[in-house]
Every structure is written in structure tokens, then in C-alpha cells.
Amino acid sequence: xxxxxxxxxxxxxxxxxxxxxxxxxxxxxxxxxxxxxxxxxxxxxxxxxxxxxxxxxxxxxxxxxxxxxxxxxxxxxxxxxxxxxxxxxxxxxxxxxxxxxxxxxxxxxxxxxxxxxxxxxxxxxxxxxxxxxxxxxxxxxxxxxxxxxxxxxxxxxxxxxxxxxxxxxxxxxxxxxxxxxxxxxxxxxxxxxxxxxxxxxxxxxxxxxxxxxxxxxxxxxxxxxxxxxxxxxxxxxxxxxxxxxxxxxxxxxxx
Length: 255
Description:
It contains eight helices and nine strands. It is of the alpha/beta class.
């Protein structure tokens, strides 16, 4: 039986053909020392052995499914529709949690009931689990998010279920940014400096390596949808990146 002050945490892993990394992700969730975790894996119909990996751990997973879907955003929505926890999070199938991450996040949320979401720093890792850098997060808020100051490693966020609304399925990159702005508009979100809760894997097929500007395109959609003006900080940042980005890549190729 769960003590009344310890909330159930629902963690979702959306996945599609990530057998190379999926087991590490699953293990990082199951090895957390926080005792009340409801783990749900939503696979998009993988054909690379992912299902066999999931079945290996199915006695420790609350629910899982492997069926075609429309991508990561739909998978996350599908997972949270099954979730019964008071605290929610998702960890992608190529990323991992560090030990004690869940327990530290929940401790903070219990002690700070007015905080809607908490997040921390994360490491960048390669295909072989080597740490190759660090994502140092920063404290942000609704106004700063609307200015394009994100600074939140998605892998490290934990938030209260009462602030959850389904992600916009038309977003491929910025669905987390959209969620953060909606949460921050209602309540405080908090960065815990000095904590490193997760590992963000950089590899050849990761979305981060595909198209950075597409994420900014979607962030602008959020901006305009919520009544933002063309004459704003985030729009200026968008066009600055659009001009400087290709020049920077050209300079690297020439070096």
C-alpha cells in the first residue's frame, strides 16, 4: 500500500525502431529507487526487435502496446491517456534517467505544492553511453518561454497531472515547448540547479540531428496561436537563427 504522501508517478516511453537503445531506457526507469512508478511503453509497431525487448520486462511494465501510430506526439498522448499517476513524465527510447532522478523530483514537488513542474540538468551521451557534454538548464517562466528562452531538458521534467492537456498532434518537434508554455501560464515551473537527472543521447538518427529550424517553426506557431506579435523577441531570434545557421554550417565545412 502506498503511503498517502507519496504520489504515484506515471512515466511514458514512446518508441519506434529504437532496439539499439530501448533496453537502456527501460532499465533506467526500472532501476529508480522511488517505489511508486507506473511505467507505460508505447511502441509504434517496431520491426527491429523492440517488441522482444519490451516483452523481456513486461512483468515490470504497467502497460505496453505495439501498433502503428502517427509518431511520437500521438504515442505520448496515447500513453498519458492510460496513466493514473498524480505526477507525469516521459523519457524517449534513446534517452535514460540517472539514479535517484524520480525520487529527487518527487521530493521537491511534495515539499513545494505550488510548483507545477520541476526540471534539472542533463548530460549529452553518445551511442556508447559516453558523456560528451552537458545541457545546463536555466530557470525560465511563461514570459521567458514566450521570448524563446527554453533552457529545459525535456528528459528531466516532471509535472503534476492536473496541468496536463493532450499534445497538439501536428507538432513534431515543439510539442514539449507548447506544453511548457501552457503549464507556465498557469503556475510556477522550477529549475533545480546542480541536479543531473537524465542523459540525452546524440546519435545519427536522433531528431535533434535532423532539423533544428523546424522546431523553431513550430515554436512560432505557438507564439502566433497565443496572440503573439510579429514584433517580438522570439520572432527576432527565429530570423536571426535562420540567417546565421546556414552561414555557421558553411564556415564549419570550410574549416
